[in-house]
Write a structure and sequence with these properties.
Layout (H helix, E strand, L loop, with lengths): L13 E8 L3 H17 L4 E6 L9 H7 L6 E9 L13 H4 L9 H10 L4 E5 L3 E2 H10 L9 H23 L9 H6 L2 H14 L3 H15 L5 H18 L3 E2 L2 H11 L4 E5 L6 H11 L6 E5 L7 H6 L3 E4 L7 H16 L4 E2 L18 H11 L7 E9 L5 H8 L9 H10 L7 E5 L3 E2 H5 L15 H17 L4 H11 L7 H17 L13 H13 L4 E3 L6 E3 L5 H9 L6 H15 L4 H15 L9 H15 L3 H5 L3 H10 L5 H4 L1 H16 L8 H17 L11 H13 L8 H33 L5
Parallel strand pairs: 1-2, 1-3, 6-12, 7-10, 7-11, 8-9, 8-10
Antiparallel strand pairs: 3-4, 3-5, 11-12, 11-13, 14-15
Length: about 775
């Protein structure tokens, strides 16, 4: 132990021991000089100092001897912090140029000398929160330490606690955006609860505790993010460079982020963004960094852990999870304790509730795995509350659409690799407009499921009805936060025109009712689209044509725009991002037609048909609960005629007149692609024998073949319906209805009934499409 020269007699009892965290001879000299100065200033208190040993346990003898001295000193960790020069705007953030000469937060001795000579204000000595040895000893004992007189395990505990305290002190110096955990594997592996769970699992698996612990340590180091403040800065520069290659601006509301920051001070927040592009995480990372918030702990698929991207993003907050670990009990145990640790320490989380990127533009059905772990951690009292934050990340256009179209046509997904990353960079050379980040209404677990139950056993159950209800509510709020973009409205109009090309004037007329509907419903938008502004329409169309989503023929008297058969899936992607806003309106149209056809109570027929269509498309859209949906259906009808219920009682003629007054017609624009795809699935099933194989993998090729035939026969409206995503959802619906189970003649009849049901929906959609064509030609009132 090194002792500062006392200013008075050595008979004083030592009261303060400075633990000097020196990482170079220069830092050691600076800290010793500082400690000796503190000793000279302390007339009434004896001051000692010694160097803080390595976290790996090297050089612990002096500290162990000091802890065994029998007194109760105040232990004060001290460290040198090196700041780098301020960049434009007054920020101290590392850039790639700093890396050429080493980490600016951990300079070598040459750069340390240069800083001390040329910019001494960039060298700071920081003091961490002190603690009495008796207090640390008691915390160590409660954490699983043993006899009060032992110091071996206590030394490692004191070193770890001092290091963590120094990290907190350094973070105060550098800013809250660098609030990152340190020593995560060491802390988790040293926890008695974790050791006890490992021992219990070892007994259940019939293995030795040591072997399970070794495997758990490997899994934990494979999973855990390893934050580095410098890499957070560098990743921010990389992410900003990526999105700026293809996009003009990143648009978000800073006041919303400030509200989130206030929540982060009290509770852990789970950021749950939509997943439409590989830029989603980089974009959200930049937003938080620009607002001075720390990076999230983001769950990423292990497929993204390739060099050099994997090592960079892991040090910027991404933790990688295996795609499948259902039967790996050790891995599940480690992941649960990792999530427990993050929730307990109030670190923010981020993951994609959809599981993967949406290939169709619509929000995918939620995956419940990680949400179940978070809900379980809250339930067991790891935090007083956990706030789930739905986020919509909307793009005017995205660079991934070509890749998605290939997959939707049955092509294979390209595996992630460095070559794949370079191809993505090349695609970003085009211009795709703006990126819009919108924050939805937060969901509090404390308000949703009640207070936690500390002491309850762990049970991260994906099948829990509570977890599933929470997931669907979050998805509904994601959809509510998604803004309507000009591109989504234009593609909605062009796809609704079928195979007809439109002039700018015709497109404006087609959009007029749609834009008015958006305004009446007060839907969120990124920009107001004026259907009479020819130049604004031309700008949107030119952007779509530039990226191959639409086609312009300009050799005639005036240019006309269309979406060709090979472009329909790409265009549908943008329409589908906002399609949820129009689904209830489309269902209302079909329910009115059903009411006109019934001879019984027409109001009941209207609502029954609405519920039947809700059930038919329940795997495509996130509907409200049954009662709320009926109220939404009622409001939709009243939007077109406040006396709609009285009209129903007047008979089919008045009901059809009401339908013709609806503006805009939506069913053919919104539901036709899904109904046509379901028709293909239903007809494939109807052609099967009761004993034929019915696994989705074997049925998909049949669906693609029949869809191609139906497109040629014009029995299916467009190639958009020949989509892998739509076929998979149709097969999921069929499985839900028991149509993929083995059976006999009764199964054949139920499959035939399903085909008839879908065909009846298609028939009424075709009627709405005919009305839309008549309106375009002037036969129906505009």
């Amino acid at each position: 132990m090194l002792r500062a020269k006392p200013s008075v007699s050595d008979s004083r009892e030592p009261a303060v021991v400075f633990l000097l965290d020196a990482r170079s001879p220069i830092e050691r000299r600076l800290l010793r000089r500082w400690a000796e100065e503190q000793s000279r200033r302390s007339a009434d208190t004896q001051v000692d100092y010694l160097e803080l040993p390595s976290l790996r346990g090297k050089g612990t003898e002096r500290l162990e001897a000091r802890l065994a001295a029998g007194d109760d000193p105040l232990l004060q960790p001290v460290r040198v912090v090196w700041l780098h020069e301020r960049e434009e705007g007054g920020e101290r953030a590392a850039t790639w140029k700093h890396v050429l000469f080493g980490d600016p937060r951990d300079p070598n001795w040459i750069r340390q000398l240069w800083i001390l000579r040329r910019a001494p204000e960039r060298c700071r000595i920081v003091l961490a929160e002190p603690a009495r040895l008796s207090e640390l000893r008691e915390r160590w004992r409660l954490a699983g330490g043993y006899d009060h007189g032992l110091t071996g395990g206590l030394v490692e505990f004191v070193v770890r606690q001092a290091t963590l305290a120094l990290e907190r002190a350094e973070r105060r110096e550098r800013g809250s955006r660098y609030k990152v955990p340190r020593l995560v594997p060491e802390e988790i592996l040293g926890r008695p609860a974790f050791r006890g769970a490992v021992a219990q699992l070892a007994r259940r698996l019939g293995r030795t505790e040591a072997s399970v612990l070794r495997e758990a340590a490997r899994d934990l180091r494979e999973i855990a993010a390893a934050h580095s403040p410098t890499m957070i800065d560098l990743a921010t520069h990389l992410f900003r460079y990526l999105y700026r290659r293809g996009y003009r601006a990143l648009r978000y509301d800073r006041t919303k982020v400030e509200e989130i920051a206030r929540v982060l001070q009290r509770y852990p927040v789970a950021f749950l963004p939509t997943h439409r592009s590989n830029l989603d995480h980089p974009v959200l990372h930049v937003v938080l960094h620009e607002c001075g918030l720390p990076p999230t702990h983001t769950a990423g698929g292990i497929n993204m852990n390739f060099f050099p991207i994997g090592p960079v993003v892991r040090r910027a907050g991404v933790f990688f999870i295996r795609r499948s670990f259902k039967d790996d009990e050790v891995y599940k145990l480690v992941l649960r304790h990792y999530i427990d640790y993050l929730i307990e320490k109030r670190f923010s989380l981020e993951w994609y509730l959809e599981g993967g990127r949406s290939r169709s533009g619509k929000l995918l059905p939620p995956r419940f795995g990680l949400l179940a772990y978070v809900v379980d951690a809250y339930r067991r009292g790891k935090s007083e509350d956990v706030v789930l934050l739905p986020i919509s990340i909307a793009y005017d256009q995205i660079q991934d659409v070509t890749e998605y179209v290939t997959e939707q046509k049955g092509g294979r997904k390209e595996p992630e690799s460095f070559r794949w990353f370079l191809r993505m960079l090349r695609r970003l050379r085009r211009r795709y407009g703006d990126i819009h980040v919108r924050f939805g209404v937060p969901l509090s677990l404390a308000e949703t499921i009640g207070p936690p139950e500390p002491g309850s056993p762990p049970n991260p159950d994906e099948r829990s009805l509570v977890v599933q209800k929470i997931a669907f509510e979050v998805c509904r709020r994601m959809n509510e936060a998604t803004p309507v973009t000009p591109v989504s409205l234009v593609t909605l109009a062009l796809l609704g025109a079928g195979d007809r090309a439109l002039t700018l004037e015709e497109l404006g007329r087609s959009l007029r009712n749609v834009v008015d509907y958006v305004r009446r419903k007060n839907l969120p938008t990124t920009a107001q689209l004026d259907p009479d502004d020819v130049e604004a329409l031309r700008a949107v169309l030119d952007a779509l044509c530039e990226n191959g989503v639409a086609t312009c023929f300009a050799e005639g008297p005036e240019p006309v725009y269309a979406i060709g058969p090979e472009q329909q899936l790409a265009a549908a992607y943008y329409r589908n991002t906002v399609i949820h806003f129009f689904v209830t309106g489309a269902i209302c149209e079909l329910a009115l037609l059903r009411a006109a056809e019934t001879t019984g109570e027409r109001l009941r027929a209207f609502f029954d048909e609405g519920l039947r269509l809700r059930d038919l498309f329940k795997f495509e859209f996130f509907f409200s609960d049954r009662q709320t949906f009926l109220e939404e259906l009622r409001a939709e009808a009243a939007l077109h005629d406040p006396d709609w219920q009285a009209v129903l009682e007047l008979g089919p003629g008045e009901i059809h007149a009401l339908v013709r007054r609806i503006r805009p017609f939506l069913a053919h624009r919104v539901l036709r692609p899904f109904a046509d795809a379901y028709r293909v699935v239903a007809d494939v099933l109807a052609r099967l024998g009761p004993s034929d194989p019915v696994e989705p993998e074997s049925l998909l090729p049949r669906c693609f073949a029949l869809a191609k035939q139906y497109v040629l026969q014009r029995r299916v409206r467009s190639t958009e319906s020949a989509s892998k995503a739509l076929f998979e959802t149709g097969l999921r619906l069929a499985r839900n209805r028991g149509l993929l189970e083995p059976g006999g003649e009764e199964l054949r009849e139920r499959r035939a009934a399903f085909a008839e049901e879908v065909l009846d929906v298609v028939r009424r959609i075709e009627l709405m499409e005919a009305l839309a064509a008549a309106r375009r030609s002037g036969l129906v009132e505009v």
